[in-house]
Amino acid sequence: MNVDTTVRVVRRAARRGTREARQAVLDATFAVQARHQRVGLPPLEGEAQRIVAALQRGEAAAAGLDELKFGTTAEMERVGRQILADMAEEPRLASEVRGPRIRTATAVPALRAWALEPQMLAIASNYIGSPAVFQGVHARIDPVSSAQDLTELWHRDGEDRRMLKAFVYFHDITIDHGPFEYVVDSELDKGLRRRILGGIRDAERNGRLGLDDDEMAALVPRSQWRNGEVPGRTALFADPTAFFHHGRLRTKARSSLFFVYTSAFPREPGHCRQYWDDTFPAPTGF
After folding, report:
1. With the C-alpha atoms ordered 167, 173, 179, 184, is the resulting torsion angle positive or negative?
2. Phi, psi at 66, each rounded to 5°
3. With contact defined as beta carbons under 8 Å apart, do 259 and 166 qualify?
4. Are residues 31 and 172 in the same domain?
5. What is the distance between the alpha carbons of residues 63 and 176, in angstroms, rounded to a whole number?
């Protein structure tokens, strides 16, 4: 996208309203940056190449923590396990009655060091298509659930055009733990994709985040659903803006760390604030 095209896009958007103009500026800036910096993206090594290839196909990719060969893994794991153990002992806040318990751990040195490993940034940057920004990390415990609510409903994230989340699990994730579940976008035709989006918009108007399993199964057969069952000490890489997804219902609690990356110019900057502001409390003692 050249300068003249950028100006035309922004002017058209400005006539439609402030929000559209802001997004047009971000889109245009991202396009220019991606075009000029793609050749300078950091090289991928070992497991990182396989992970990015899977992401480019619209799939999630799992890698054992040892397979990533990061020098900071041992300390990240020690501190991460302690944060999650402490969270499990804390009294539940009023805001956590319906959903997960979340702590913003972005400032914790051991977690931040792992997030900024050169190959983590290389994975995020090569997938996103421009130098990636580490937005933050959430420590999260999802309790046992009996009815679909919040992120257990089928939805699609919207922070950026592309983004990367690395879900780090220290314990096995089985069906009982309600693994991450998704459908590959390329397996859906445009008409079906529009119907799913329409269903999600209708659900949002009725105060729900998205579709329940029965509603989704009426559109996409369960045989096409893929889930993220993985052994303990695994990182699951996914782009939640790239496909419809949810977390399955749980008969056992699930604990994890969510590491989040976007471009330098995310489409919805306000949606990224939760990863580093005071939306959620920080863990204590770290």
Report:
1. positive
2. -70, -30
3. yes
4. no
5. 21
* Both tokens assigned to 163: 């983004």
Q: Are residues 179 and 250 in the same domain?
A: yes
In contact, 237 and 55? CB cutoff 8 Å: yes
What are the structure tokens assigned to 169, written together?
């699990």
Question: Which residues are registered as beta bridge partners of 235?
Answer: 63, 168
- 163 and 230 together in one domain: yes
CATH of the domain at 242: 2.60.120.620
User: 69 with 26, same domain?
Assistant: no
- Distance (Å, whole) CA 178 – CA 35: 39
Task: Specify whether 116 is located in the same domain as 258.
Answer: yes
Within this chain, do residues 20 and 147 fall inside the same structural domain, yes or no? no
Beta bridge partner(s), residue 262: 133
Residue 92 pLDDT > 60:
yes
Region label for 263, one of left (φ > 0), alpha (ψ between -120 and 50) or beta (otherwise):
beta
Domain that holds residue 148: 44-275
Residues 22 and 54 occupy one common structural domain: no
Task: Give the span between the Cα atoms of 130 and 28, in whole angstroms.
Answer: 13
* Residue 199, amino acid: G
Asked whether residue 285 is assigned to any structural domain, the reply reads: no
Task: State whether residue 162 is helix, strand or coil.
Answer: coil
Largest CA distance in the chain: 57
Q: Write the CB contacts of 75 (distance below 8 Å, at least 6 apart in sequence).
A: 110, 113, 114
Residues 266-278 as b/e (b if ≥16 CB within 10 A, e otherwise) read bbbeebbebbeee
pLDDT tier at 5 (50, 70, 90 boundaries)? low
3-state secondary structure of 200: helix
Kindly report the pTM of this predicted structure. 0.85
Q: What is the pLDDT of residues 149-186, one digit of tens each?
A: 889 999 999 889 999 999 999 999 999 999 999 999 99
Q: Which helix (H) or strand (E) holds 258?
A: strand 254-263
In a domain, 281, yes or no: no
How many structural domains is the chain composed of?
A: 2
